[in-house]
């Protein structure tokens, strides 16, 4: 990679590290780092270590996962408007998790930790396969993909509505908060579960960055250049579905990060996925960390669902992209 891009990525990583350290001190209760290490209040340290730190780290993992999933989807479909939320992938995962919440099944402790992610993965994978199969048809177009995404979102939304109707009060509150997106349930156990899925998935996608670059030339050209197109597409689809599923299972539906971040990284770093992939992970982590920090502080001691903030940011960006593409083709 060019030196400028490498320096940009290191700069982004440094800014993210500094913001992570600062974010652990903000919330309904201010916890400055110097007070924690110089003071003698053990209760404050326990709050910082068991509540604040896992939440900040979970924001990094979820934000990076959603941005990377969006980066992969945009690369596979060769379109900057591809996004797990817009295409219905997040809704598919949400519907499966809602079914798990309302119809719980007793499993061993370790399986119970991963069961919501498995349910979300199956729902996300089903929606992904529908979108991917449609994109392979000769008469497929962006407008048709978005219409299918709208249909999937509507169908899954109706299913979640039915499940909410038959749920009890505790389940209904859980579904309501979870549908707006929140990191309030962050714990070390959930952080470990999501991270254990994200890290190998990121490494697999990183190894396929070169093949993803060649896919931008078209399937036939990539095949002639030595890419096993169908296998690479299959692996990338599974990886993106797994990233979305693990994020949705833990934090609920947090939209537009997968749309905004990869597009910004392509504008800044270029089209080489060897740079866009790590850039998307870092920038996605940064964006969700900022959004969650604001959500924890702007209405303290109450808390705003972080999914609302990301939607407020992403919806205008999506409209700008549509008008921009319309102007380019007009």
Automatic annotation (TrEMBL):
> What membrane topology term does the record carry?
Multi-pass membrane protein
Provide the Gene Ontology terms for cellular component: plasma membrane
Q: Which residues cross the membrane?
A: 52-73, 85-107, 113-134, 146-166, 186-206, 235-261, 281-299, 306-323
Q: Which molecular function GO terms apply here?
A: transmembrane transporter activity
UniProt name for this protein = Iron ABC transporter permease
Q: Name one GO biological process term.
A: siderophore-iron import into cell
Q: Which family does it belong to?
A: Belongs to the binding-protein-dependent transport system permease family. FecCD subfamily.
Q: Name the UniProt key words of this record, in alphabetical order.
A: Cell membrane, Membrane, Transmembrane, Transmembrane helix, Transport
State if Coiled coil is listed as a keyword.
no
Output the superkingdom of the source species. Answer: Bacteria
Q: Which SUPFAM superfamilies match?
A: ABC transporter involved in vitamin B12 uptake, BtuC
The record's listing under Pfam families reads: FecCD
Mainly resides where?
membrane
